[in-house]
UniProtKB/TrEMBL annotation:
Cofactor: L-ascorbate
Upper taxonomic lineage: Bacteria, Pseudomonadati, Pseudomonadota, Gammaproteobacteria, Moraxellales
This protein's name: 2OG-Fe(II) oxygenase
Keyword field contains Oxidoreductase: yes
InterPro entries: HIF_prolyl_hydroxylases, Oxoglu/Fe-dep_dioxygenase_dom, Pro_4_hyd_alph, Pro_4_hyd_alph_FE2OG_OXY
UniProt keyword annotation of Acyltransferase present: no
GO terms of molecular function: ferrous iron binding; L-ascorbic acid binding; peptidyl-proline dioxygenase activity
All residue ranges annotated as the Fe2OG dioxygenase domain in the record: 106-208
Pfam families for this protein: 2OG-FeII_Oxy_3
Sorted UniProt keywords: Dioxygenase, Iron, Metal-binding, Oxidoreductase, Vitamin C
One GO BP: cellular response to hypoxia
Length: 212
């Protein structure tokens, strides 16, 4: 898969770049080829090795976030092919955004996340205070065919929106529809609202350092 060409198809269109720069975020629907998307959906449902999520200062504080996460390894000997392919896709996205916006991104990291019914992540930014190492945050939603709703739909009444305060201070509620990718500036405040169904995703970060 030529991931650079894949992302260029979006970001050649100046509206997408402008949204990311001006509003601070952009939403890409049907972001991945269906085959990789479905493979990620299945991989995300392999429940072993998810761990209680940590907050950016290192500890766990259930008043801040209550989801579980599983980091994606780029090690090819780890038998999780879809996740490794997705890391490659994020690396290519970094190159495309570096070329267009000179962001200086040098590495990527990503984890699966699972929010059980009622779990949430209170408002936060994706960098520890004083750090700007995470330049761009990404979230890919893996909520496929929940509760007999076919296609990749998510109903607003289930809750579970990503609530983002955008670059013009407007509050944006973005539903976690399957195969939707949200790309946003990591310094924007955002939160995950609780949902009445299980909510699955991959959160990924495009970083200015190479320590991961
Ligand atoms: O799942 C989402 O919509 C956002 C998750 C998030 O903010 C994070 O993991 O830092
Ligand atoms: Fe976040």
């Amino acid at each position: 898969m030529n991931w650079m060409m894949h992302w260029q198809q979006y970001f050649e269109d100046s509206q997408y770049l402008e949204a990311l720069v001006e509003q601070g975020f952009v939403v890409l629907d049907h972001a991945l080829p269906e085959s990789l998307y479905m493979a990620l959906v299945l991989e995300s449902r392999e429940d072993e090795h998810y761990q209680a999520a940590k907050i950016s200062t290192g500890g766990r504080l259930e008043t801040v976030r209550s989801d579980s996460t599983r980091w994606i390894e780029s090690d090819p000997t780890v038998n999780r092919q879809a996740g490794a392919e997705y890391l490659e896709a994020l690396e290519a996205l970094s190159l495309v955004l570096n070329r267009a916006l000179y962001l200086g991104i040098r590495s990527v990291e990503a984890h699966y996340a699972c929010y059980q019914v009622g779990q949430f992540y209170a408002q936060h930014r994706d960098n520890a205070s004083g750090s700007d190492v995470r330049a761009i945050s990404t979230v890919l939603y893996l909520n496929h065919g929940i509760n007999q709703v076919d296609s990749n739909n998510w109903r607003a009444e289930w809750g579970g929106a990503l609530r983002l305060v955008d670059a013009s201070d407007a509050v944006q509620d973005i539903l976690p529809i399957g195969n939707r990718l949200v790309v946003f500036q990591s310094d924007l405040p955002h939160e995950v609202l609780p949902a009445t169904v299980v909510r699955r995703s991959i959160a990924g970060w495009l970083r200015r350092d190479t320590t991961v």
